[in-house]
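The instructor's notes for this session suggest beginning with a concrete chain rather than abstract definitions. Hand out the sequence below and ask the class to guess, before any prediction is shown, which regions might be ordered.
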Amino acid sequence: MTNGETLLTISDLEIEYQAAGARIKAVDRVNIEMEARECIALIGESGSGKSTIANAILRILPENSAIQQGEILFKGGSLLGLTEEEMRRVRGRDISMIFQDPHSFLNPVLKIGDQLSETIKTHSPGLGKGKSLEKATELLSVVSIPDPVRILSRYPHQLSGGMAQRVGIALALSSDPALVIADEPTSALDLTIQAQVLKLLKGLRDRFDLSILLITHDLSLVSNIADRVYVMYSGQIVEEDRVDGLYRDPKHPYTVMLLEAVKKLQGSDTSYSAQTESRGESAESRCRFLPRCPRAGSVCREKAPEYVRFPSGKKILCWE
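After discussion, reveal the predicted structure:
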């Protein structure tokens, strides 16, 4: 449950990439607000800007990118105004990250126990080796790894994908962070393990009063864990709502199509997506979703859409 205390605020964030002599706006005027102990889902297809926002929060954007405008506040303080040394103290300790591929962030030549204990000692310098290994064992138990002492002596390549991801979650929890960013944490896993990992994250959120920013392309994953959902398309937030309101009454055409895709995969009838047709985008078009929108009208081709707010709190970027 949330308590109304604002933990993270992203205001009018714009991020551009420089590629092949061109400037590409990857994030365009994004606004996100997150309360303490809240789970926010950031949803969209590949290239929509989700991971760019996560990297901006941690200030780990690639060299060919730049924040053009906006602000990122964490616990009321500006992350963009911190020095690199100050930011290093935030990363991992106050804000941690669970990555998409668990084997990509685990050092292949170090045993799991060494990696966990070193991370723990980094954030708790006064802790000796014995105590850090003791905490590492406890963390593996917390993430439901059987026989944690045995796993401490294993190398990453000796673990399954699901087991390695649990180790990644343990690493993310090792500094008792206030915010955990989970960037596509289940996409490299099979469906059964996906469900187990999401159930684990939900349980950890409740147990440790965690705030979680869940980044995913799969709308079907968020219904049982997220409080609110931000839907992204082409660098913009196109719909924002509580998770129950989004599922019950989606408004933006892109959100509707995402939900219909979920129904189709689950074997339900769908009619909305069948109406979609190819619409060539004219040079003067200002709506980014226009080429794929089944409801586009003349106003969509004439000027950029504006945000529409509903009494329920829902907000969409559309000429609805």
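Then share the key points. Confidence is low (pLDDT under 50) at residues 269-284. The CA atoms of residues 114 and 152 lie 8 Å apart.
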